[in-house]
Amino acid sequence: MGAETVLQVEHLKKKIGAKWIVKDVSFEVRAGEIFGFLGPNGAGKTTTIRMLVDLIRPTEGSVRVCGFDVNREPERALAFVGSIVENPEVYSYLTGFENLEQFARMMPGVDRKRIVEVSEMVGLQERIHDKVKTYSLGMRQRLGIAQALLGRPKLLILDEPTNGLDPKGIKELRQFIRGLAEEGLGVLVSSHLLSEIQLLCDRVAIISRGSVLAVGKVSELIRESAGYVIWELSPKAEGRALLEASGIQVIERAEEVLDDAVLAGMSANSVVAQMPGEDVPELLSSLVAAGVKVSAVHKINPTLEQLFLEMTGGETIE
Amino acid sequence: MNKSLMISLIQNEMIKMIQKKRFYVVLLVLLVLVPIFAYAQMKQAEDKIEKYGSDWRREVQQAITDNQNSLGSDRVPEEWKKYRQIYIQQLKYYLEHDVNPAQPGGVSFTREFLDNASSLFIPLLIMGIGSDIVSSERTSGTIKVLLTRPVRRWKILLSKLITLMMFVSLIVLSTFVICYLISGLFFGYRGFDAPVFTGFQLSGSDVDVSAVHAVPQWKYLFMQAGLVWFVGVTVAVLAFMVSVLVRSTAASIVIMMASLIAGSILSNMASSWASAKYLFMVNLGLTNYLAGTPAPIEGMTLGFSLAVLGLWAAASLVVSFLVFTKQDILH
């Protein structure tokens, strides 16, 4: 916890036209941690990220990178930031190396040696002297990351980095990002795919409709989230009445709180109960004693996605 | 890479401009079109020699007579009659001083070509480069990478502007050089010392010749180059502004092209709408003031046109920098 704060966002707001796109966003990213910025498309993620790198001027609030205000002192603040905003955009009529040279000329202290170094880091050394228009999407992504790392940043911002990558690519990217964080880089990763981020991030902020709903460690957030148990009972009505009589809340609209994958496996006799897992054995024996047949009991491990569904009341993720 | 930041930024822009190959397209256009014009001119010259023999005086005399005859006709608009009267007086001046107004040669061709090219052809070439310089970064999304560097936005825009000015100069220079080199193949490379008259003062249909003086053609070319460059800079700065304001390169090219062509149409209408003279597009024919060709609208002088163009350029620069440094990059 003693790590240096590399990014501090305070009460960030943005109004475009008459609409508040970002209502009140505050969080911080520390050195050496991977911070997930999660929310559905249209929640204000991209607008927030653009405010972090001075592409959009906030209506209110402040963004500080290593203590420097991005709006007031962009020359100092942005020297600590490497970013890919949305797609890894580079000049397709130049070679990978020429692209990196372009960006190197705009930053102090980046020489040819560093260009070679970052292109090796992302594994592009073989193709670095080819024109970018001959690159695959994955290679462009690597070039984008090379570009972001060029200036030896303290904060790396990756906006939807897994877009367009295959599962293998995503796995490689995860390992790569982990490695960077271990070297002390603070990494901010935004995504609308919560399951992907859960495996990667130390802490997350969940954003919906322009406001932050929760910030914290993934493990802590999930612990706060209610557990669910799916009972397969027959006769269903009798079993359900018994559960309710024991003071357990039965969920009517399971689709609002559970993943699609779980929903698909449910039978007609399923009853979804919101309850801690430790109560299962006791209930099981009382159900059996009452003559209700229990054909299956599933304990659902809470996920970020489920937590998100709970907080937003079934707002769609995509 | 410890050079000054601005030099590095300009170097970046130069590399992008060259690698995008727009400038080669401009050179290619010149290399294709100039020989066509030169060939047409040569055909015309051959025609005249057939008609009038090798004596240019007969040709000029004939032109004077033709124009004088048309003055009597009711079918010629008053406006045109005025122009023709001016033309006649100028031809007479050339005749009296025993100077051929259309001495064939590579240098004369270059001079005439640039007179004709300065208000539309060269602006179009320059616009092709200027309209693209900011909007292409937006179209490709690279603006995001460019503006997230630890560099102030105005510095980035300034480096683009300086690069554009360098290319404007290069285009004007290459137009002169290509014209001279190619037309020389047709007409010979001589004629630098041939005299050209300049300084005709026009008032209505009268020509005041008191200030007229002969300058050697090479000097005339330099004066022309200066004026064409000024036109080029103005058009470039306007295209630059459009390029900042409009996100798509295609849209910004269309906007500039439409206004340039509108200018040439308006000039030809020899407008009785006097306030049109404050539009930049009708002021692009700066070299006409040198040659003594009447301005499209009453009351326009070289000084006036320079001032109008200068004001438009200054305003465009202010708008470009204000918008570029303040604007939110939303897409």
Automatic annotation (TrEMBL), chain A:
Highest taxon, organism lineage: Bacteria
Record has Phosphoprotein as a keyword: no
CDD domains named in the record: ABC_BcrA_bacitracin_resist
Name of the protein this chain belongs to: ABC transporter ATP-binding protein
Species: Paenibacillus faecis
Keywords (A to Z) from UniProt: ATP-binding, Nucleotide-binding, Transport
Short name of one Pfam family: ABC_tran
Keyword Transport appears in the UniProt entry: yes
InterPro entries on file: AAA+_ATPase, ABC_transporter-like_ATP-bd, ABC_transporter-like_CS, P-loop_NTPase
Stated family: Belongs to the ABC transporter superfamily.
The ABC transporter domain, residue ranges: 7-234
